[in-house]
Write a structure and sequence with these properties.
With 255 residues, this protein is an alpha+beta fold. 27% of the residues lie in helices and 27% in strands.
Length: 255
């Protein structure tokens, strides 16, 4: 069922989203060559705990996963598209890092992701990140009353394909509210003017993920979580929690 939130509920979700943004900001600040992914997870955990929030990722076990997720962030390096589990890997010059984070605060969820390069970037990485961000911006702009869910997917798909990037099949965004994952599913492809009508109070986590090599397929790691590009090419993933309002899109996961 698709749930519509009240203005007061959107305000509560904004506070959850603020914690997510601060956690991601702290991770970005601490991400340096030689720093481990586990250390970045600890940084995010400290921000979340300090805000009186709870991780939405730690212990989460969807149907596809063999084990509960063991961390508060997803840390996906280079060819890992999404769902990378933080471990002892230490960042190297030129690594492309995507970080996803979700929290619950006072019963409401927030979810967002960022991608950035550690140290000097490799050719094409900054463009990949910029296009993924532009796709998110275009999708957010489509979150207006009377629009359609297909408008959001179409905006993401058009940006990715125009740049020649792959768009992993089956994965995309989702509704969000009391639970981190709610209806509807928000595909990263769609037909403009088709699908669910967007109404004020609808909240969506929109998350473009593009693969530089152009392929839409992916490989699943033995841990059952991390998804990687088939050809080893790099990937970027960005996300915001966005509310449809009478005044236009309201991004809830800003500092």
């Amino acid at each position: 069922m698709v749930e519509i939130k009240t203005v007061a509920e959107l305000d509560a979700m904004r506070e959850a989203g603020r914690v997510v943004a601060l956690a991601l900001e702290a991770v970005r600040e601490h991400a340096r060559v030689g720093v481990s992914l586990l250390e970045l997870d600890e940084v995010a955990a400290a921000v979340i705990s300090g805000a009186g929030a709870k991780s939405a990722f730690l212990g989460y076990k969807p149907g596809f996963a063999p084990t509960p997720f063991p961390a508060v962030i997803c840390a996906s390096v280079n060819d890992v598209i999404v769902h990378g589990i933080p471990d002892g890997y230490r960042l190297r010059p030129g690594d492309l890092l995507s970080v996803d984070c979700g929290v619950y605060l006072e019963g409401w969820a927030g979810d967002a992701a960022i991608s950035f390069v550690v140290g000097p970037p490799r050719p094409g990485d900054l463009e990949l990140i910029a296009v993924t961000g532009a796709a998110l911006g275009a999708a957010i702009a489509a979150c207006v009353p009377g629009g359609r869910l297909g408008d959001i997917g179409h905006a993401v798909h058009a940006a990715g394909r125009a740049a020649g990037y792959g768009i992993p099949e089956d994965f995309g965004g989702h509704g969000i509210g009391r639970a981190m994952h709610e209806d509807p599913h928000v595909p990263n492809r769609g037909r403009a003017g088709r699908g669910l009508v967007l109404r004020p109070g609808l909240v969506l986590a929109i998350e473009p993920m593009f693969v530089a090599g152009g392929g839409d397929g992916y490989l699943t790691a033995p841990d059952g979580w991390a998804l990687s590009s088939v050809d080893g090419s790099r990937a970027a993933h960005v996300e915001h929690t966005v509310a449809v309002t009478a005044d236009g899109p309201r991004v809830l996961t800003l500092p």
